[in-house]
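DM from R.C. (forwarded with permission)

"hey, sorry to bug you on a friday — could you get me a structure for this? deadline for the figure draft is monday and I only need the backbone to look sensible"
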Amino acid sequence: MKITSAQFIKGLNGTDEILDDGLGQIAFVGRSNVGKSSIINSLTGQKDLAHSSSFPGRTQEINIFLVNNKYYFVDLPGYGFAKASQEDRERLRKLVRWYLFDSHYIQKKVVLIIDANVGLTDTDTETLDALEEHKKEIIVVANKIDKIRKSEQARQLKFIQSAVGYHKVIPYSVDNRIGVEDLMAELFSDGQRSILVV
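My reply, with the result:
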């Protein structure tokens, strides 16, 4: 599937009727500054669709993007931003957890984005465990693969794969457009879950 249209719809802090309109929801989740917004931009071919920043913790709401008038890309606030206040970190953690686990919304896929060079952090592992516990359809994206020397990429990806088990791991680079087609194919394939929207 090719993305021919994409637009920002709104930012949410809770239940909204827009997510009850029957379109498929694909969620993007990961720690702050791991590149969620940049990945969404690279998939849609729109450089400034999702606001990315070198300043971690910029995404403070659940941002909704309409793709091909058929799906919603759901950009969730990043976790693990140490410079945020404890109150803000807890609010965002609860918001992400509410959408993924406590709300009635069902995601077609959840894209867990990690830093390829860092591997899974403790918080990434906790998030993956929670997604598995709630039987989500998970894709793991190892972003910023271009920051690793080519001679070391295979070893690092093998390490990441062993950490995530059977889940598909897609090496990704926004700058070099590595993994874009692979991720697109996974996002829009008919997985085990039907579409009822990380």
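R.C.: lifesaver. The first strand starts at residue 6 and ends at 12.
me: no worries. The helical segments are 36-44, 86-102, 122-133, 150-164, 180-187.
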